[in-house]
């Protein structure tokens, strides 16, 4: 038995309209096409669907029982197709994103706000990690995309620069270096215990690119694995650190940030995606919203 959607839709339209002419208008088909579809459906089912008279068109007893089930099937199909269309347009679906904690704090709130307003039916899953962890989550397929710093090992991944985040000297509010505002040179950090990062982090390689800086920068007093630990130590005023500006909430952490110069140092943050894999429409929309939020800070 071969039954087509066109035949089923024609049957429902005629049954509800009570007329082949009105059903043709509803479906935007010609009346002969509707007539042919009904005849083909009757042949396929081996069942008369309508009793016809000169003044009235009515469902047969068998087709009256048949109608509710067909309407339910078509309704469910239309709903499913609408969902497919929403996913294709990116207005419905889900997107998983891995980001640095600083990005989660400073970038994502405004991104998610604008994105959710435009696409309220889209679900967002966030994972925060250090840069190597973000890369690994993207590479494994755990997430659709990531935002993190550039690292050396990026096989199978694509990095698109988005932000240049300047480093600054970060000290407790009671520290002598907090007495003045404005930029400060690396030489000014020489007298104080320096807190830095372990070699397997995303920030330590950037600090290691510096030349002709005080010895306490290249041979730090203590090394840690994440920015949260650095800030916890700074809150006790046991040392100083050099951190990217986006990583520092000066009010919450009771610290002062002074941009470092001579030379300036920047952390480059970017979009990480898998090479050879296109993003879903939903993920593409999320990326576009994030870029709109970050546009003033884009790398030129």
Automatic annotation (TrEMBL):
<dbReference type="Pfam" id="PF00126">
    <property type="entry name" value="HTH_1"/>
</dbReference>
<comment type="similarity">
    <text>Belongs to the LysR transcriptional regulatory family.</text>
</comment>
<dbReference type="Pfam" id="PF03466">
    <property type="entry name" value="LysR_substrate"/>
</dbReference>
<keyword id="KW-0804">Transcription</keyword>
<dbReference type="InterPro" id="IPR036388">
    <property type="entry name" value="WH-like_DNA-bd_sf"/>
</dbReference>
<dbReference type="InterPro" id="IPR005119">
    <property type="entry name" value="LysR_subst-bd"/>
</dbReference>
<dbReference type="InterPro" id="IPR000847">
    <property type="entry name" value="LysR_HTH_N"/>
</dbReference>
<keyword id="KW-0805">Transcription regulation</keyword>
<dbReference type="InterPro" id="IPR036390">
    <property type="entry name" value="WH_DNA-bd_sf"/>
</dbReference>
<feature type="domain" description="HTH lysR-type">
    <location>
        <begin position="3"/>
        <end position="60"/>
    </location>
</feature>
<dbReference type="GO" id="GO:0003700">
    <property type="term" value="F:DNA-binding transcription factor activity"/>
</dbReference>
<dbReference type="InterPro" id="IPR050950">
    <property type="entry name" value="HTH-type_LysR_regulators"/>
</dbReference>
<keyword id="KW-0238">DNA-binding</keyword>
<dbReference type="GO" id="GO:0005829">
    <property type="term" value="C:cytosol"/>
</dbReference>
<dbReference type="GO" id="GO:0003677">
    <property type="term" value="F:DNA binding"/>
</dbReference>
<protein>
    <submittedName>
        <fullName>LysR family transcriptional regulator</fullName>
    </submittedName>
</protein>
């Amino acid at each position: 038995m071969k039954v087509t959607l066109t035949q089923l839709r024609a049957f429902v339209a005629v049954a509800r309209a009570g007329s082949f002419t009105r059903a043709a208008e509803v479906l935007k088909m010609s009346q002969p096409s509707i007539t042919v579809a009904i005849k083909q459906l009757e042949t396929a089912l081996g069942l008369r669907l309508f009793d016809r008279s000169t003044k009235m068109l009515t469902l047969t007893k068998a087709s009256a029982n048949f109608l509710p089930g067909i309407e339910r099937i078509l309704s469910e199909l239309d709903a499913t197709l609408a969902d497919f269309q929403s996913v294709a347009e990116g207005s419905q679906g889900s997107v998983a994103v891995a980001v640095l904690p600083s990005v989660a704090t400073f970038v994502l709130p405004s991104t998610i706000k604008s994105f959710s307003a435009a696409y309220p039916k889209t679900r967002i899953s966030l994972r925060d990690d250090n840069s190597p962890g973000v890369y690994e989550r993207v590479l494994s397929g755990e997430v659709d995309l990531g935002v993190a710093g550039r690292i050396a090992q990026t096989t199978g991944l694509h990095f698109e620069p988005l932000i240049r985040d300047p480093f600054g000297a970060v000290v407790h509010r009671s520290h002598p270096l907090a007495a003045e505002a404005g930029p400060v040179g690396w030489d000014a950090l020489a007298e104080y215990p320096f807190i830095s990062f372990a070699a397997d982090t995303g920030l330590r390689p950037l600090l290691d690119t510096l030349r002709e800086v005080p010895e306490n920068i290249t041979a730090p007093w203590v090394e840690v694995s994440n920015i949260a630990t650095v800030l916890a130590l700074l809150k006790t005023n046991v040392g100083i650190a050099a951190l990217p500006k986006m990583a520092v909430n000066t009010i919450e952490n009771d610290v002062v940030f002074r941009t470092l110069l001579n030379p300036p140092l920047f952390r480059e943050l970017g979009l990480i995606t898998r090479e050879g894999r296109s993003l879903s429409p939903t993920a593409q929309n999320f990326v576009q919203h994030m870029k709109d939020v970050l546009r003033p800070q884009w790398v030129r």
